[in-house]
Amino acid sequence: MTPETLRSLLDDIAAGRVTADDAMRRLRDLPYADLGFAKVDLHRALRAGGAEAVFCSGKTPAQVVAILERLIVDHVNVLATRADDAVAAAVAAAGLPHAWHPGARLIVARPEARDGVGLIVVAAAGTADLPVAEEAALVAEALGNRVERVTDCGVAGLHRLLAHRELLAEANVIVAVAGMEGAMPSVIAGFVDRPVIAVPTSVGYGTSLNGLAALLAMLNSCAPGVSVVNIDNGYGAAHQASQINQLVAKIR
Amino acid sequence: MTPETLRSLLDDIAAGRVTADDAMRRLRDLPYADLGFAKVDLHRALRAGGAEAVFCSGKTPAQVVAILERLIVDHVNVLATRADDAVAAAVAAAGLPHAWHPGARLIVARPEARDGVGLIVVAAAGTADLPVAEEAALVAEALGNRVERVTDCGVAGLHRLLAHRELLAEANVIVAVAGMEGAMPSVIAGFVDRPVIAVPTSVGYGTSLNGLAALLAMLNSCAPGVSVVNIDNGYGAAHQASQINQLVAKIR
Amino acid sequence: MTPETLRSLLDDIAAGRVTADDAMRRLRDLPYADLGFAKVDLHRALRAGGAEAVFCSGKTPAQVVAILERLIVDHVNVLATRADDAVAAAVAAAGLPHAWHPGARLIVARPEARDGVGLIVVAAAGTADLPVAEEAALVAEALGNRVERVTDCGVAGLHRLLAHRELLAEANVIVAVAGMEGAMPSVIAGFVDRPVIAVPTSVGYGTSLNGLAALLAMLNSCAPGVSVVNIDNGYGAAHQASQINQLVAKIR
Amino acid sequence: MTPETLRSLLDDIAAGRVTADDAMRRLRDLPYADLGFAKVDLHRALRAGGAEAVFCSGKTPAQVVAILERLIVDHVNVLATRADDAVAAAVAAAGLPHAWHPGARLIVARPEARDGVGLIVVAAAGTADLPVAEEAALVAEALGNRVERVTDCGVAGLHRLLAHRELLAEANVIVAVAGMEGAMPSVIAGFVDRPVIAVPTSVGYGTSLNGLAALLAMLNSCAPGVSVVNIDNGYGAAHQASQINQLVAKIR
Amino acid sequence: MTPETLRSLLDDIAAGRVTADDAMRRLRDLPYADLGFAKVDLHRALRAGGAEAVFCSGKTPAQVVAILERLIVDHVNVLATRADDAVAAAVAAAGLPHAWHPGARLIVARPEARDGVGLIVVAAAGTADLPVAEEAALVAEALGNRVERVTDCGVAGLHRLLAHRELLAEANVIVAVAGMEGAMPSVIAGFVDRPVIAVPTSVGYGTSLNGLAALLAMLNSCAPGVSVVNIDNGYGAAHQASQINQLVAKIR
Amino acid sequence: MTPETLRSLLDDIAAGRVTADDAMRRLRDLPYADLGFAKVDLHRALRAGGAEAVFCSGKTPAQVVAILERLIVDHVNVLATRADDAVAAAVAAAGLPHAWHPGARLIVARPEARDGVGLIVVAAAGTADLPVAEEAALVAEALGNRVERVTDCGVAGLHRLLAHRELLAEANVIVAVAGMEGAMPSVIAGFVDRPVIAVPTSVGYGTSLNGLAALLAMLNSCAPGVSVVNIDNGYGAAHQASQINQLVAKIR
Amino acid sequence: MTPETLRSLLDDIAAGRVTADDAMRRLRDLPYADLGFAKVDLHRALRAGGAEAVFCSGKTPAQVVAILERLIVDHVNVLATRADDAVAAAVAAAGLPHAWHPGARLIVARPEARDGVGLIVVAAAGTADLPVAEEAALVAEALGNRVERVTDCGVAGLHRLLAHRELLAEANVIVAVAGMEGAMPSVIAGFVDRPVIAVPTSVGYGTSLNGLAALLAMLNSCAPGVSVVNIDNGYGAAHQASQINQLVAKIR
Amino acid sequence: MTPETLRSLLDDIAAGRVTADDAMRRLRDLPYADLGFAKVDLHRALRAGGAEAVFCSGKTPAQVVAILERLIVDHVNVLATRADDAVAAAVAAAGLPHAWHPGARLIVARPEARDGVGLIVVAAAGTADLPVAEEAALVAEALGNRVERVTDCGVAGLHRLLAHRELLAEANVIVAVAGMEGAMPSVIAGFVDRPVIAVPTSVGYGTSLNGLAALLAMLNSCAPGVSVVNIDNGYGAAHQASQINQLVAKIR
Asked: Which has the closest alpha carbon to D148: D183, D172, D184, D179?
């Protein structure tokens, strides 16, 4: 409820076009309806081409199917992240239109191709980081962004990264995915003046502490322009990258 | 050096317009000169109105003064972060033109007021988070952005936060500063579809673990659209927020 | 043994009504029998309608069966928590009267329905938190409390939580179950003046550190009125909530 | 704003007693005023005899004074926690009526003695835990509860604790304060069927890890009925204990 | 080589009974042979009835069999700890005389019953701690000590522990095994003036952190007289308890 | 109160030699006095020459003085650990007979020299470990044990340690004090078959983590026979060593 | 590309022996080729007999096969570390010439025996450390170094280590592999003046924290001359040891 | 004692030139004297030009002076690390010949300039890392190595690092000093085939965790050829670098 609709309602009461009882009923949910949360959610979907993503971990395949069935009524490109084989099988068995990306553990329900706007570059430091990077790239594409992938460009082979610096400089936002020592985002931020969203991955062993080493390195980047999301959170990075890219592209 | 200028140089050699010796000299620095690092840095300064920020911790006041003296030759609004009283005294004694913000521990050398573009909202959860929030706000302003401050709006007084949701929804990017349980950025991202850069602060005690509790909460936000910087890193958040805001405002 | 009964015994000795030998015998176990531990346990069972709960982890199914068999002689609604399929199968094979709640990993042996007193609200932030929340709700019901469940009301969809604030304000105590960033208990405590027992869950990944992130957030709640139990400890929260609710309802 | 006052306002508009403009002005803040947050706060103050507590850490003495000055207009027994000497001096210099408890680092502004209801027992394991225990006891008293103190009763001298078990069993809620190995709350919960709010303290050295050892012990209590607050958080424990005690005593 | 045998060798050289060449050969290994390490090991075996224990984790069943085969030539009651089913099967298949205690994951090769000296009490806080406690008790028995077991005596049922205080006071050393909050060793040390070797177990969940919570509690015992071994290290506790008990019993 | 004195008291009442009132007064503390806690404490003091030690941290100098004044009425060699200059000054100002060991931060109140029994060897790895080692040695001496000190024998100079192996082998128990990598106790346990109580110290920097590195090393000793106390806890190690040594020497 | 070959290319263009087009093609990769990264890699391969090692974790068997197929075109003794059975089966099925060391999880593709230069000693503390030590030894051999193995020489049996001190003193570099308390490298560095590269292993349990205890011990070595690599990183230690050994042997 | 001197002693006994008694006396210390620890130390000093370094932390100034006075009798360039102002003042007051480097907290007692052999490059990522880097460089010089310094070359300004790659490639060993995200050593190892000894520094704040973030990054380097020493341990890195450099230069 906007100030305008509230004012209009009040005028209607004053004019006797609406009774106090009816107004009471409409205003009863005001505390949160007027907060516009659901409305905001709706707007987001219309604008960005997707509903809230479904995080599959901890949900049964049947729960995921039920949620997706409800969401694809109103939305296309509905995302289900961390979808394992059992979830994918259930979605397929339920006959839902969908695309299944097992490497990225991602299901796009009621998929619909769309021209991407702007440019998001998704850079992966190593081959083992590809599943997370691919989740980010696929999510960004499903949300309507142009995406370029740069792979196998960790700091042990810096020249491979430097070879892509023009592409990186052209991006509105860079999603930088790295495990182990997690240095790549810092290096990118050191030579490209674009916002870098760093995604630490759990790639590594021993003192990688399942990605904490990479996370800490990224948070301590000596180059400004780096912010960080949770370990292996390709979806989250892509979501924020899409917010930024579409603001720049004047979509939202 | 772009491919075009390289091709042109090669043509010049082939045509005898440039000797191999001269070409050798120009190509000698290619490995890094052509990387354009310094040039990029220069461009960043011209565009964004500021040089690299000086992180004062671990530097002597004399070192800070010397660096600032060199930087203000070419730049205005040169930032010195984590500047304590001793640094401020040294800068003043050296006669450098500057503004000193003790609460934010920030010095702006050769300060120059500028109209800010776009909109960055800096939200602080509590009074004790203000020094970090103020660092972020002052840095963002020095970098040429329009900044609005929202204070004392932590989740214990949610209504104060909700009162500002229109301002928050209008921002190109939100810097959300919170200590203790660090929940505010999640809540903001839950009702505003704008990128949120979360800054955990070391405000708290005991299990706040000097800000780690807030950091972890922010990294685990159940609302997408949140990325995180280091604890108390108001500068870093403002830098990235400025990158984003100015891309949207078509400054860079 | 109260001071009064002790004084009475001493008088009896002085008066020759009790011999020193008999007094010696009665006083020998005083150090602990008079502490009344077993008696207290018995009183607790009579009052609260349940025996000590059996924590199944680390016990063999046979051990669990044996303990339950002994407890249901004197008690109804005997709880076995963290009961997996093997335990449930053994309990069934042994022919014990029981109800088995696999989602909540809970067995109620010799179950007996009872009208609940007072009101405990069990709120779950997300679908994945439901097993722990359900453990809490079922335990609270088995202990004789009226329980209302509020689900899927995490801070990413704050309006869903706010919609229940009247119910929350009516509760004698609220059990708030959340994983990931664990912000929901703080938000509830921010707008309802009732004791909140927060249960962090291991829902999440990466920096959720198996629930430590949620735990830390809850311990650092900026809103007073929140206390915390162990990660995934739905039983423990329900036990204390029951103590409180029944004190208010004047049951104990 | 209650449903009744909202209904009354709507009736006034319908009846022409209030213009739409005036109603608009009053309803402008509705989204959060109607959430009743401020109102709840007000009710809490009226009922419990105190306003929101002021957490002094990270605030300047001047800020604390200003906040207290505003709060004591409407409230008595306004609490300022973690108040150090500088804060106390500033409060005294400002001429505010107050009581200063340096051991507990607590200021009670506009103090007003009151008869306490119900019973909260505050138990401290050792002499070094007394400052935190005293903060809890003083806060609980300021909030209008009857408080009994039990001191120096850690598990190394178990008999001292057992000597108080009748008092403990009589309490509506027990605040158990302990550092080092933090075992006392578990022991209390093992022989008294009352809710125990455990407060770990930073008393100890080495592997006490500034109170983390005690915190972990308390969270892992093998006796049910224990919940935990932040390290050294005597205020928080007292606040929740007061909520519980007053519910039992039918104050709120 | 003892000082006596060295002196004797030197005399033999001086007397010409041994050539310098032969002496050289015998003394070549002196730097470490004379350190007496192997000899000490041998003495230990003769005195205590057992050889070095074999830690099976990380060894193949074949390796364990080979080591045991060699050790039982000279020793009885050779211990193999952390022996899983595969190791036990291999030892059985190899035809080695042995006793297999699957709960304690312990194999005693070439077992030989012996009267135990002195008294070691092994106390376990809960049923789930029994495997570790049983490892300790069996090891202590195999090493020739009299052992008494006290079980299910955690602090949640303190009276069960207190019931055994005379037995505890009689022990030369107490091995106290506990998981979860790990409080039992402190409580024992609080009322019995005997050395307590505490064994934290990995029993628990969530913030038990696989036994770290119990370990920290034990290290921070407010009662003196407690020392601690590694988590789940029943063998190590029994070994040191045996050293102490046999010194008291004048065996070594 | 022993069973004998209790019986005797009861007989006295029966015989009229003691009135019920007087008995009541004496038995008022029975619930715990009969637990024998105080008795144990008393016995310990008589045997070992010292009362409970006073841990000064977190106590005011005045509190320490008051406790010591009371304790020295009945005891000699009363220990006050972690005593800083302020405590020592207060004790001196109060005119208490005492010895002050500033390096070890130890006060021995009403000191009385005594011949030590048995043998405890206190070994320190480095010069910086000496304060903790000295605390252990002085405490052990005050408790009536013969103590030998071995210093500067860390594993970087292994020969210095090996030079003392005969002394080490002669000890009833060894207190091994080491910081940094904490390897010395393992090495000692590898060549001497005596119980080793390891004391990690906070000596070191960076990854020593204030002694956690040494602690972990000691807990993971590959040589059996090592148990561990809290970081810098020379007192605790000495206390347990004294228990063991005096059992061997048949003092207790 | 060296300065010489660049100069020569430029001369060729100037002389018309190479067209600008051809030069362009060769120089297109210059920005990074001229950084010499690939060249360095090539030189390393020629000198050391091996290409970049393939880290198999996180790669599919098919990916590993594809990478190895490409690498063995130009290289011998190509290493694939952390190769499990599935990878080994895929490599075998693909018909690649290779040696498979399952214990060390190492594949050497296109293996070629070579005389080793210099001397690297690989010392393992215990039997369970052998897989990591063997990885180090095999890698060092494949890289062309002479390797001697010293096994089962942990500090619990110090004499076994001391027996090898002449061999250790002869080495150009020592790789010291140990789990549990991780003391062996410190001890070696204490009596041999050679660089020691310490490899912590995840051998242990409980507080070994999967190798962190050993890692911390090694980083805190009181003996200088120790540096450390990641937990279980036998490959990394061997790689650096090979760099050092071959510099001494004047190979690189 | 070398094999030769032992053989000679045995011959002397056989020949009657030495009595068995005298030989006994000389051999009594053999177990460790023959280990040659002290001799090795002596050899190290003669070869490398320096005695054992004195670690000043935890030692009193007087202790440091006493140790230095003894060491400079036989040695030049005796190092005292972590020397603060008080230590330096005491050394000066004692009249010892010395050089005092306050930035590096290093004293070189009885300093003697020497030509350095080989080449060690000490690279520092930032200005704040200079004290640690300078400690490394000065130590390496005092130990007789040629040292080149490369400063302010962190990954945020990668071109500054790349500008020095020829110098880096020329080094026998590189000491790479970095705080914050600690990426520089990985980057160096990625383009230079020389052993890199990485020194994490405590430079940073928040999640740098006093250098742990940099340490973890270095341990997880995706480029092989990096080993790591303790945080801020410039001395340790220089010591090992010197060992390596002098082996290459054939000094030891």
From this structure: D172
pLDDT band of residue F28 (cuts 50, 70, 90) is very low
Q: Are strands F196-200 and F226-228 parallel, antiparallel or unpaired?
A: parallel
Confidence grade of residue A44 (pLDDT, cut at 50, 70, 90): very low
Which residues of chain H are under the pLDDT cut of 50? 1-2, 28-49
Is beta strand B117-124 parallel, antiparallel or unpaired with respect to B106-109? Answer: unpaired
Which percentage of chain D shows pLDDT scores above 70? 86
Q: What is the pLDDT of residues D85-138, one digit of tens each?
A: 999 999 999 999 999 999 999 999 999 988 899 999 999 998 899 999 999 999
Please give the distance of CA E237 from its chain centroid, rounded to a whole number.
6
Chain G residues lying within 8 Å of H248, measured CB to CB: 247-248
Q: Is D7 on the interface with A (CB under 8 A)?
A: yes
Q: Which two tokens stand for residue C96?
A: 């014990």
If contacts are CB pairs under 8 Å, which of residues 24-43 in chain C contact chain F?
24, 27-28, 30-32, 34-35
Q: Is pLDDT at G9 greater than 90 in this prediction? A: no
Q: For residue A230, which of A238, A222, A137 has the smallest C-alpha distance?
A: A238
Contacts of A82 in chain C (CB under 8 A): 205
Contact between chain G and chain B (3 or more Cβ pairs less than 8 Å apart): yes
CA distance F171 to F178: 18
**pLDDT, position D42:** 35
Residue C250 neighbours by CB distance under 10 Å: 10
**Rounded distance, CA A88 to CA A106, Å?**
9
pLDDT of residue H96: 96
The shortest CB-CB distance from G7 to any of B7, B24, B31 is to B24
- Separation CA D115–CA H167 (nearest Å): 80
Instruction: For residue A158, list chain G residues with Cβ-Cβ distance below 8 A.
Output: 32, 35, 37
Q: Contact C57/E162, CB-based, under 8 Å?
A: no
| Nearest-10 crossing angle of helices G20-27, B3-14 | 140
Task: Report pLDDT for D251.
Answer: 77
The mean pLDDT of A16-38, rounded to a whole number, is 53
H191 in Cβ contact with B187 (< 8 Å): no
**Which residue in A206, A214, A220 is closest to H207 by CB distance?**
A220
CB-closest option in C158, C159, C206 to A232:
C206
In this structure, what token pair is assigned to residue H135?
A: 């400690």
Closest by Cβ to E23, choosing from H3, H10, H34: H10
pLDDT tens digits along F49-104: 346 788 999 899 998 999 898 888 878 999 999 999 999 999 999 999 999 999 99
Sign, CA torsion G231/G235/G238/G240: negative
DSSP chain D: --HHHHHHHHHHHHTTSS-HHHHHHHHTTHHHHTTTHHHHHHHHHHHHS--PPEE-TTS-HHHHHHHHHHHHHH-SSEEEES--HHHHHHHHHTT--EEEETTTTEEEES----PPEEEEEEEESSGGGHHHHHHHHHHHHHTTEEEEEE-S--GGGHHHHHTTHHHHHH-SEEEEEE-TT--HHHHHHHH--S-EEEEE---S-GGGGGGHHHHHHHHT-SSSSEEE--TT-HHHHHHHHHHHHHHHTT--
Structure confidence by residue, pLDDT tens digits, B192-206: 899 999 999 999 999
Helices F85-93 and F61-74 cross at an angle (nearest 10°) of 50
> Alpha-carbon Rg of chain H, whole angstroms?
22
Supply the pLDDT for residue H46.
39
B-chain residue closest to C193, CA distance: B156
Count of CB atoms within 10 A of residue B239's CB? Answer: 27
Task: Say yes or no for a CB contact (<8 Å) between D214 and E191.
Answer: no
Is it the case that residue A22 has pLDDT exceeding 80? no
